[in-house]
Amino acid sequence: MIHRTLWRIDGAAESSAVDHERLAAGMRLHVIHSPLTTLTMQIDAQQRSYLVLDGCVGCLRDQCRVGCPAALFRRLFQSCVTGATLTAVPPPQGLACRPYTRGSFAWPDTHTQPLDSTLLRPWADARIMVHWRRYGAHICGSALLLVSADGPDPMSALRECNWHVLALPSRMVTRWHQAATPSGLPFGVPWQQPLFLMVPTCPDSEPSLQIASSRANQSPDGAPVSQEDMPQ
Ligand SMILES: [Zn+2]
Predict the structure, then answer these.
(1) What residues does 135 pair with on adjacent strands?
(2) Do 188 and 107 contact (CB within 8 A), yes or no?
(3) How many helices (H) and strands (E) does the chain have?
(4) Any domain includes 210
(5) pLDDT digits (tens, 9 = 90+) for 61-103
(6) How far apart, in Å, do the first and last CA atoms of the chain sit?
(7) Which among 23, 27, 112, 226 has the fewest CB atoms less than 10 Å away?
(8) How many domains are contained in the chain?
(9) Ligand 1 center from residue 225 Cα (angstroms)
(10) Ligand 1 centroid from CA 34, angstroms
(11) Domain extent at residue 81
(12) Cα(5) to centroid of ligand 1, in Å?
């Protein structure tokens, strides 16, 4: 039985040593066997980033079974990223239910640019999620952006990065923002660019960690995390 687990990325904003090429290659191999979701949540000026991984019954106790995809990914992450760790978020903790009112699905084409957490800065409350999984011979990607009532149209932010977008009906916004561990997105389009992880960015500085490979064509949500996890 597959247990989907939520993992918080701790310490990444201060880190700088990333083996980009090996990480992107490892992520591609991972997604061939198991889906992967990278996610950043913003509440006011603070951001936190998470991964959703398929895992096993032992993930939360650090007693993974042999071959557990989450354990394999943690090993990859630890060997490629210095100064950041993955911490499991045990249920009933999970991503906070935040006051999102608008949302957009997005899917890539060959001109699409990778997303990073600075995308969220125009809103007081926002969440961006990118989901990868394998369909047949392809690694496919899709994205979901949820935002509060302030700030610009979420579709315009994604269009600027050359993603195709579709406005999310309000009942879907409600469904997605109430999920403590978000489910995978229901569709995907072949992803030709290097895979990437999103990490928190500080408001007044350049992101010091951009986890993305420089090599092209590697085809192939936080306050419960506890409400106390992020300042209100
Ligand atoms: Zn496990």
Answers:
(1) 138
(2) yes
(3) 4, 11
(4) no
(5) 999 999 999 999 999 999 999 888 999 999 888 888 899 999 9
(6) 37
(7) 226
(8) 1
(9) 19
(10) 13
(11) 3-203
(12) 8
CA of 77 to the centre of ligand 1 (A): 15
What are the pLDDT digits (tens) for 99-137? 999 999 999 999 999 999 999 999 999 999 999 999 988
Residue 227 forms part of a structural domain: no
Q: How many angstroms does the Cα of residue 43 sit away from the middle of ligand 1?
A: 29
| CB-neighbour burial class of residue 38 (10 A; exposed 0-12, middle 13-18, buried 19+) | buried
Is position 7 within any domain? yes
In a domain? residue 211? no
Task: State the Cα–Cα distance between residues 31 and 42, nearest whole angstrom.
Answer: 26
Q: How far is the CA of 198 from the centre of ligand 1 (A)?
A: 22
* Cut 0.70: pTM above it: yes
How far apart are the CA of 14 and the centre of ligand 1, in A?
Answer: 27
Task: Provide the residues around ligand 1 (an ion) whose CB is within 5 A.
Answer: 55-56, 59, 64, 68, 70-71
